[in-house]
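User: Hi! I have a protein structure encoded as tokens and I'd like to know what sequence might fold into it. I'm fairly new to this, so please keep things simple.
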């Protein structure tokens, strides 16, 4: 359970770390990935395809609000509470324009803002985790 607390504390730091990477160097096109430790990182398009392939037949997606971005995840990692579904980590974010498209530096900044605005804190007893509500 201490790991859950550590994940929550790392989420904000990871988002800021991604912002610093953007400022320090120009990014190629790719995808935003929130890994199992809730670190927010930029991955190449090739790595994004490998991650999507790892989802196998369990791949699901949801549009992020009314944006052009889509969150892709393994349905097996979905958490269900009180009739709602959440995904805490292990998801990709890409553009959805006539199929999946990579994101660039400008997109990453918007994605970080959208994720920050839509990520919720779930209370699991005395523990809290950050998760994206998918339905």
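Assistant: Happy to help. Inverse folding works backwards from shape to sequence: for each of the 135 positions I chose a residue that suits the local structure. Here it is:
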């Amino acid at each position: 359970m201490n790991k859950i607390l550590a994940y929550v504390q790392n989420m904000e730091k990871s988002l800021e770390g991604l912002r610093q990477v953007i400022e320090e160097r120009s990014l190629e096109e790719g995808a935003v990935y929130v890994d199992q430790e809730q670190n927010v990182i930029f991955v190449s398009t090739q790595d994004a395809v490998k991650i999507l392939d790892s989802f196998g037949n369990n791949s699901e997606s949801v549009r992020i609000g009314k944006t052009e971005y889509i969150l892709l995840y393994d349905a097996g990692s979905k958490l269900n509470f009180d009739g709602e579904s959440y995904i805490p980590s292990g998801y990709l974010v890409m553009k959805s324009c006539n199929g999946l498209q990579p994101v660039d530096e400008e997109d990453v900044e918007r994605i970080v803002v959208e994720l920050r605005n839509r990520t919720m804190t779930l209370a699991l007893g005395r523990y809290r985790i950050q998760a994206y509500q998918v339905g």
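A useful reference point when you look it over: Residues 2-133 form one domain. Feel free to ask if any position seems puzzling.
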